[in-house]
């Protein structure tokens, strides 16, 4: 009887630690304005910003600057509230980056510039019914 009670308390403790740890890593999507406020308040955690590549009136992508060694690049992204921001990514451009419909950048501000540690893409070609094969 005492052993099962002790094991139950240990199990509940482990579950609580896992929940608290997972909750601490959870992040919500914010705009660039909110991300700047978090940075100015001293929050250095990873921030998720959703947006699209900056496009001109003819729907051409603008604002992409590749480094000379092609190992990093920066691009202009427009968040869901319409704010345009320069984003730096310290790795080569992901495949299908220019065809992406929506982008999620995960990172933080450093010296008033958004530095992306990770980029998630939503490409329209992956979600069309024509490409689904049964």
CATH class: Mainly Beta
Mean pLDDT: 83
Distance between the termini: 55 Å
Spatial order of the strands forming the largest sheet: 2-4-5-7-6
CATH topology label: OB fold (Dihydrolipoamide Acetyltransferase, E2P)
CA-based shape: elongated
Overall structural domain count: 1
Unreliable residue stretches: none
Tell me the radius of gyration.
20 Å
Q: Assembly state here?
A: single chain
Number of strands: 7
Secondary-structure class? alpha+beta
Which H/E pattern describes the elements?
HEHEEEEEE
The CATH H-level superfamily is Nucleic acid-binding proteins
- Helix proportion range: 10-25%
Q: Tally the helices: what do you get? A: 2
CATH architecture: Beta Barrel
Biggest pleated-sheet summary: 5 strands, mixed, barrel
Task: Please characterize this protein's 3D structure.
The protein is α+β, with helices and mostly antiparallel strands and 134 residues long. It has a single domain, classed as OB fold (Dihydrolipoamide Acetyltransferase, E2P) (Beta Barrel). 25% of the residues lie in helices and 32% in strands. It has two helices and seven strands; from the N terminus they run H-E-H-E-E-E-E-E-E. The protein has a five-stranded mixed β-barrel. Strand 6 and strand 7 form a beta hairpin. It is elongated. The protein starts with a helix and ends in a 12-residue tail after the last strand. The model has no long low-confidence stretch (mean pLDDT 83).
